[in-house]
Specification:
Blueprint lengths: L13 E5 L2 E4 L4 E4 L2 H4 L8 H13 L10 H14 L5 E5 L2 H16 L3 E5 L8 H5 L16 E4 L4 H10 L2 E7 L1 E2 L5 E2 L2 H14 L2 E5 L23 E4 L10 E5 L18 H16 L2 H16 L7 E5 L2 E5 L7 H7 L3 E2 L1 E3 L3 E4 L7 H15 L1
Parallel strand pairs: 3-15, 5-6, 5-7, 7-10, 10-11
Antiparallel strand pairs: 1-2, 2-3, 4-12, 8-9, 11-12, 13-14, 14-17, 16-17
The chain binds pyridoxal-5'-phosphate (PLP).
Cofactor: pyridoxal 5'-phosphate
GO molecular function: identical protein binding; pyridoxal phosphate binding; transaminase activity
Protein name: Acetylornithine aminotransferase
Length: 374
């Protein structure tokens, strides 16, 4: 048997990783500004993370949600504190798509409605309703197609108001900063508009914080810049620093009923230990502040390059829009300078490094970038 060939891959085998670096099987060192797609939040193989997971594995790695889980309660309390939503409740699952699937489902249970509003260029995952709310027909299978999702233009307040009048809206789902869509920051006024329309029509505001959340933007949720609360926040990626884990943070107005949501693996002992280790390191090393500081520095410096068409993003979620003539830069950064970056089509370099990135690493990237664009 061979792996099902669905991923275009770089011809690199990673054998070792530490902090913001990885090493291949030839011993070459790479600077990692991609973090395995925004997953590595506190840095690779952080000693506290490794110890907490190892200690937990030596005690109990897994048991299902049929027994009491003090670790889940500890995680909920710490996440409530760090995210500033202490009166919210936590439901744990295993991936981002699953987090969005559960959020959309919970919204529909809550108000008994079916219509979901999503936005152009959105990416919410590949499970049935999450993919139906994703604006990419190539990954929507016929069985996922549904009239329950309406796509609206990004940032179009009039279209949003009209949709609320036309449909019985169950929920509005929006990334605070679109990732796959090319690093597009939702304006504070647009997020506030969603909040007020959801309040007016008793619809549910779902903040997809899977890529832009968990401190990456310089605030815990990038949606927090708008100064309003969403009803449900969905998380994955950075929450486990590589341990597969998803979560939703649920406003107090939702009433839990036994059996309404559920999963076998979600919230197991090892997953909770991973998520606790991440939050402990984030607090101890003040990584949200670091993301704001180093990200702000990078954005400012990148704006000085006249070859760059636009720099978008917040904190350590940065999109560098390049002209077609510089489409080769991402590959050159990897092959010539051994720097991993992400991309979004067309011609956007996406920086999604660990939140512990240092100024020296940022400068190393800027120097290599400067050589390639000039
Ligand atoms: C904004 C957003 N939502 C949802 C997902 C889906 O997450 P997962 O791949 O863990 O299912 C992603 C993944 O890239 C994402 O960027």
């Amino acid at each position: 048997m061979k792996p099902f060939d669905v991923y275009p891959v770089n011809n690199i085998v990673i054998e070792k990783a530490l902090g913001s670096h990885v090493w291949d099987d030839q011993g070459n060192q790479y600077l990692d500004l991609y973090g395995g797609h925004a997953v590595i939040s506190i840095g690779h193989t952080h000693p506290h993370y490794v110890k907490r997971l190892t200690d937990q594995l030596n005690k109990v790695g897994f048991y299902s949600n049929s027994v009491k889980m003090p670790l889940q309660e500890q995680l909920a309390a710490l996440l409530g504190k760090v995210s500033g939503k202490e009166d919210y409740h936590l439901f744990l699952c295993n991936s981002g798509a699953e987090a969005n699937e559960n959020a959309l489902k919970l919204a529909s249970f809550y108000n008994g409605r079916k219509k979901v509003i999503a936005f152009r260029k959105s990416f919410h995952g590949r499970t049935s309703l999450a993919v139906a709310a994703t604006d990419n027909p190539n990954i929507v299978a016929p069985v996922n197609q549904t009239d329950n999702v309406v796509f609206l233009p990004w940032e179009d307040e009039a279209a949003l108001e009209a949709a609320f009048k036309e449909y019985e809206v169950s929920s509005v789902i929006i990334e605070g900063i679109q990732g796959v869509g090319g690093i597009n920051v939702a304006s504070e006024s647009f997020l506030r508009k969603i909040r007020s329309l959801c309040d007016q029509y008793n619809a549910v505001f779902i903040a997809d914080a899977i890529q832009c959340g968990y401190g990456r933007s310089g605030k815990f949720y990038s949606h927090d810049y708008a100064g309003v609360n969403a009803d449900i926040y969905t998380m994955a990626k950075g929450i486990g620093n590589g341990f597969p884990l998803g979560a939703i943070s649920i406003a107090p107005k939702f009433k839990a009923v036994h059996g309404m949501l559920g999963t076998t693996f979600g919230g197991n002992h090892l997953a909770c230990a991973a998520a606790l280790a991440v939050l402990e390191v984030m607090e101890e090393e003040k990584l949200i502040d670091n993301a704001a500081k180093i990200g702000g520095y990078l954005i400012e410096q990148l704006k000085n390059f006249k070859e760059v068409l636009e720099v978008r993003g917040r904190g350590l979620m940065i999109g560098i829009q390049l002209p077609e003539s510089l489409a080769h830069v991402k590959k050159d950064l990897l092959m010539k300078h051994r720097i991993f970056t992400g991309e979004a089509k067309p011609n956007v370099i996406r920086l999604l490094p660990s939140l512990a990135l240092t100024k020296e690493h940022a400068d190393q990237f800027l120097e290599a970038f400067s050589k390639e664009v000039k």
